[in-house]
Amino acid sequence: MFDAIAGRYDVLNSVLSFGLDRGWRRRCVDALELPAGSLVLDVACGTGDLSLELSRRGLDSIGLDLSEGMLARARERLRASFGLVLGDALASPFRSASFDGAVSGFALRNVTDLSAMFAEVARVVRPGGRVSLLDLGEPEPALLRAGHRLWSNHAVPWLGSVFSDAAAYSYLPRSLSYLPSPARVSELLESNGFVAVEHHLLTSGVSQLYVATRSTEKHP
Questions:
Q1: For residue 164, what pLDDT band results from cuts at 50, 70 and 90?
Q2: Which of 95, 85, 105 is nearest to 125 (CA)?
Q3: Position 6 in a domain
Q4: What range does the domain containing 29 cover?
């Protein structure tokens, strides 16, 4: 599915979010609070938007994605110095404690086993390293929530069918229901080796951000 929509993915992201996605990615990278030169894993990097944002802040990155189509688009957009790896976020090819931090953008709801993903991220991020995980959400104010549902359930699939792939853009709004509650996501992070877990609502909850620190204690 992601191979099929890679070509129009960036344009539609901006249109469907009214351009707000750029600010959300900046907030995601800001939350890492890592010094320049740190090495960050971009989990499910897609077409490379977060990798580009990391580079703008002086951070080095390696992008990992399961979709060859998305990586092909990322290679077109990123300089040759960016590392891009085809692989599974649940079983990555990297050495333990090889990254100073990790990010992901709009990927959590597409992962079949979040606990396994968090365990793998904890394995490759050094003790004391930081993670910042961005995804969509649903607004809390009732009126805004109703408007958001109309947009997501009707306008998004229609625009997707016109400019990209109808099936994919029907799935993407529905996929939000696959994401566990913030309390459960925070619990999964804590049980897989992270501490100081924070959950932030962005744009009244249209997007959400999880930030945590890799524990310095040995984790099973």
A1: low
A2: 95
A3: yes
A4: 2-139+176-214
Both tokens assigned to 43: 């989990």
Separation CA 131–CA 100 (nearest Å): 9
Q: Token pair of 111, please?
A: 């992962």
Pick from 61, 53, 65, 103: nearest CA to 83: 61
Instruction: Give dist(CA 82, CA 7) in Å, integer.
Output: 19
Give the tens place of pLDDT for each residue, 114-127: 999 999 999 999 99
Q: Which residue has the tokens 């079949």?
A: 112
∠ CA 129-104-70, rounded to 5°: 135
Q: Distance between CA 64 and CA 85 in Å, rounded?
A: 5
Q: Please give the tally of structural domains in the chain.
A: 1
pLDDT tens sequence across 170-205: 767 677 778 899 999 999 999 999 999 999 999 988
Residue 8 domain-assigned (yes or no): yes
| Strand residue runs (E) in the chain | 39-43, 60-65, 83-86, 99-105, 125-136, 194-202, 207-214
